[in-house]
């Protein structure tokens, strides 16, 4: 399942088949597919990530987020939208701040490359069998 953060992109977990010398294994790893206004991304390079069509994409659940911080869902939605808008303005102005997603990773821009770096703990939480393979692939 994936989660769409409107104006920013989609987070998902993909299964990837790895052909080893003796066996074939399947690992789960996180991916982020950027979906921002292209005017914000002029002269920036970002990896092209395609989320397979068989993965169900759900919208960000503002009600669930509101339960975690005791704010009304409309206020949470407004905060998310304003934060993404601010981030896009900063990218357009070449300020290149890091955008941190707690327990997930950091969306950062260095040397005109915009990239999502997942925390090792996030990857390990998704893949307990072949954690090292998933870490290397991510």
TrEMBL record:
Q: Which domain of life is it from?
A: Eukaryota
* Start and end residues of each CCDC81 HU domain: 57-129
InterPro entries per UniProt:
CCD81, CCDC81_HU_dom_2
Concerning Pfam families, the annotation shows: HU-CCDC81_euk_2 (PF18289)
Q: Name one GO cellular component term.
A: microtubule organizing center
Q: Which PANTHER family match?
A: COILED-COIL DOMAIN-CONTAINING PROTEIN 81
Protein name, UniProt field: CCD81 protein
Q: Which organism is it from?
A: Panurus biarmicus
